[in-house]
């Protein structure tokens, strides 16, 4: 259990709770949920420029990372079709992958197909079900994709000033503005209570909030004097109690709760807001193809990791369809911006390609 790990190493409850947020990020789980310790490990493994466990901001926003990968691929002869939705995977007579069909009917033929879509989209929507083993399809349908995340993007006309460390008179960013700021994390019990509310179908009344201001380090993201604030919040259930949906009223009511909490720490924040974009779990699923809104394409729980990701006997990137590989967050080792699943899948695909 995560709580036991943190209690062993730390005494300060606010410190333990702040560290605990990385154990429940993107997970419909409490710090007291068995297996949560692994999720913390997953978020602090690796390194950035030689600094172990460090995280960084991508200059130009996260899209710049995809753009850099695309440029590197194009420089080596890759053809990239942007904004072209894939309708289904093209299969040969023996049931092997032979390319993809786009929504406009265009066929893109290839010897191999790698999918970084979720396992559900890849195998339940892009492949005819009769081409897959029944037990495999059942396992994919049963994957836990619950997500507690509501992402709120905010535009503000001034830098937030926190009671704990007020801004200087010149309004220049301070060290904490360049970091991840964790709110409503004074104790792990607060996180557990927030989880419990969502488990019963109610958005947390005191949500866990991770606040970042990327424009402090990357001024080009906002006009002079203004900033963009990224709020990663939880817990919000995909389906509300009583079967209610996330309509405009429910979305704004939850966002108001989040903003009220921030106002308690940084008075004047609400008055600085120019605009906000609220993405609940159903929004994340609809816009980005994340099943259940899950940022990892499936829970990072012990029963869905390592040799069981996405399902047992198919954790090695290959699939029941010859020539079709899974290379996204739904494959080993799971979510996070590290590219490990893609690199591993590419190695397997290259090995197979030599025998085609």
TrEMBL record:
UniProt domain Amine oxidase: residue ranges: 34-179
> What is the phylogenetic placement of the source species in the record?
Eukaryota, Metazoa, Chordata, Craniata, Vertebrata
Q: Which gene encodes it?
A: Pyroxd2
Q: Which InterPro entries match?
A: Amino_oxidase (IPR002937), FAD/NAD-bd_sf (IPR036188)
Query: What is this protein's name?
Result: Pyridine nucleotide-disulfide oxidoreductase domain-containing protein 2
Q: What does this protein do?
A: Probable oxidoreductase that may play a role as regulator of mitochondrial function.
Q: Which domain of life is it from?
A: Eukaryota
Give the GO cellular component terms, alphabetically.
mitochondrial matrix
| Annotated compartments | Mitochondrion matrix
